[in-house]
Design brief:
It comes from Paenibacillus residui. With 573 residues, this protein is an alpha/beta fold. The protein is built from twelve helices and 22 strands. The strands form five sheets. Strands 1, 2, 3, 9, 10, 11, 12 and 22 form an eight-stranded mixed sheet that branches. The longest helix has 21 residues. 53% of the residues are buried.
């Protein structure tokens, strides 16, 4: 039986970027907050001199333990879903800071087109452009309305970027707070090639600081050392923006934040209209606690937000047969095929030095920046060259046709260790009626609770996008003049293994219509006005970008909404 604890004003479930931003904003305003994090505590000192590829990159030290909880996956309803037993597509963070600790730092704003994707697509091409079964929708907020929150987030995180306004992206109200990162020879080669082809390249906006920076909260952080241990690692310098070195110290300094680690929330207590608290399990002792609260904020990874609502029976579950319901709807992933690979016999690059967000890109074929009239897809992809830093275990580039073992394999591995560049894509992914999340009827977690089940596959939309974009990556790489050029021009069916991207979206999507959305533009639930669900679970589709910048902006807007709610109550829209 659960032990009932004294009631608290506000409880936050999950203490990564979203939970950290909201905790900071609410505690600065004088509100008492309890944050429940199922993982362990962390601090920057934990990563001093720990450049251990095996421990962090290969054995997933910072990730969720899949033997305790995982997801099940199937391509269609016609096959049985099976559990993901080893890490593949998704890197689900665990512990204080969540995925905000192990992210790369690539930090974009979604395009103005994204937020009004249905309206803008129909306006330009007509309703027939949207194929049957694709359920794109407007977000209930415009880019211009969200722009001040992007600005606030970027100043908090110290995002590094170019001072000039790029014509392919949304207009900014102020420049990036810090200059762009250094350009490597590979970046220069990519940018020169893109410009020769008439495109508009720019240095990727970076959560890795280009110089020492003090943010508006008075937090000072040092510049990036280009050590290349970003993705899957915590930053020992504090140069990579993460919750532990930005928002959480601010919240803790107020004295208004109580953090409880090893606290896995399993249920939201509610009467169908309002929540009254949460139930959680101490993962070390197995003890169960009931934490009453006036306000409940879910700020976890996409899968965790959706699963908790389904387990709690809060909000109407999505039914793909009828197309009704909202919890689990609009699942989207990301498209990563269509890359071009250049092997150089006549020059060498220092590819083992880099940073998670070090690179250049262009958006001439992203969003609706180009004419789709004669194309069998909508949206597009960000095209990029990144130098995140090779690591010895994972990096072994050889041209196709090279034997997989033996003398020639060893020779080619050594020859091309620093002689292979990649022009890659990050493609948008649209939601479909038959792509969704629900509870698995068979498989359960360590506590006997149903796992989340994912039903998803690539569609013709995705294949057409890759076929088109691959011609662009190939053209850029050809202009970069490699000795050998190879291109991946097709994708078939989606499989959860190997790793492709960790950018999952949807399931608790935002909008202006309660019949097709679970939360409003402040991420307040339509079905329970004292519950806010924050994160990429709110995205009605996935763009051609990393999601963190847009998550951060939405978290600041949600914080503003929560403060309004604490003053006036009721629905905010």
């Amino acid at each position: 039986m659960a032990t009932t604890l004294p009631k608290v004003p506000i409880v936050i479930v999950g203490l990564g970027w979203m939970g950290g931003i909201i905790a900071s904003e609410l505690t600065k305003a004088g509100h008492k907050v309890v944050a429940l994090e199922r993982g362990k505590p962390r601090k920057t000192e934990d990563y001093f001199m720990v450049h251990d590829e095996l421990r962090y990159a290969q054995r997933y030290e910072l990730m969720q333990d899949l033997s305790r909880e995982t997801v099940t996956f199937r391509n269609t309803e016609k096959v049985r879903a099976l559990p993901m037993r080893s890490y593949g597509s998704f890197l689900m963070g665990d512990g204080i800071g969540g995925a905000g600790v192990h992210w790369n730092g690539q930090n974009y704003r979604f395009l103005p087109y994204d937020f009004e994707i249905y309206s803008k697509t129909v306006e330009r091409y007509g309703k027939n452009k949207i194929p049957d079964g694709m359920i794109i929708q407007d977000w209930g907020i415009t880019y211009d309305e969200l722009e001040p929150y992007f600005d606030k987030y970027e100043k908090m995180a110290g995002i590094s970027g170019e001072p000039e306004q790029n014509p392919m992206v949304g207009q900014r109200s102020s420049p990036f707070p810090t200059p762009p990162m250094k350009k490597t020879p590979g970046m220069k080669l990519f940018e020169d090639a893109a410009r020769k082809l008439g495109y508009n390249p720019y240095v990727i906006p970076s959560g890795n600081l280009s110089e020492t920076y003090t943010n508006p909260d008075g937090i000072t952080r040092a510049a990036c050392q280009y050590c290349a241990f970003c993705e899957r690692f915590g930053c020992e310098y504090g140069a990579k923006a993460d919750p532990i070195v930005t928002v959480l110290p601010v919240a803790q300094s107020t004295g208004n934040l109580e953090i409880r680690t090893f606290s896995n929330v399993t249920r939201i207590i509610h009467d169908g209209k309002r929540a009254s608290g949460v139930v959680y399990i101490n993962t070390l002792t197995g003890e169960e606690f009931e934490q009453p609260a006036d306000l409940v904020i879910l700020a976890s990874y996409v899968f965790s937000n959706v699963r908790l609502l389904l387990l709690s029976k809060l909000g109407k579950p999505y039914d793909p047969a009828s197309g009704t319901g909202v919890i689990g709807r609009n699942y989207a992933y990301q498209i990563t095929g269509g890359n071009a690979y250049g092997f150089y016999d006549d020059r060498e690059f220092n590819l083992y030095m880099g940073a998670g967000a070090l690179g250049s890109c262009f958006d001439d074929f992203n969003g609706d920046n180009f004419d789709h009239s004669d194309l069998n897809f909508i949206h597009g992809a960000n095209i990029r060259f990144t130098q995140t830093g090779n690591r010895p275990i994972a990096s072994n580039p050889t041209p196709s046709g090279t034997p997989k073992w033996g003398k020639e394999f060893k020779q080619m591995s050594i020859k091309y260790a620093n002689r292979m560049l990649v022009v890659s894509i990050q493609g948008a992914n649209m939601p479909w009626r038959h792509h969704y999340m629900d509870l698995d009827p068979t498989y359960k977690d360590i506590y006997g609770l149903p796992l989340l089940r994912l039903t998803y596959d690539f569609e013709n939309q995705d294949r057409e996008l890759v076929n088109f974009i691959s011609t662009k990556t190939e053209a850029v790489m050809k202009e970069m003049n490699p000795t050998k050029l190879e291109t991946s021009k097709a994708i078939s069916n989606y499989d959860i293994v190997p790793y492709q991207s960790t950018h999952n979206t949807g399931g608790v999507v935002m909008g202006a219509d309660p019949s097709t959305s679970a939360v409003n533009s402040y991420l307040q639930m339509w079905d329970a006005d004292n519950v806010f669900v924050v994160g990429a679970s709110a995205f009605p589709h996935n763009s051609g970008y990393n999601p963190t910048g847009t998550i951060g902006a939405l978290a600041y807007r949600a914080s503003e909404g929560i403060l309004k709610y604490l003053q006036q109550g009721g629905s905010l829209v």
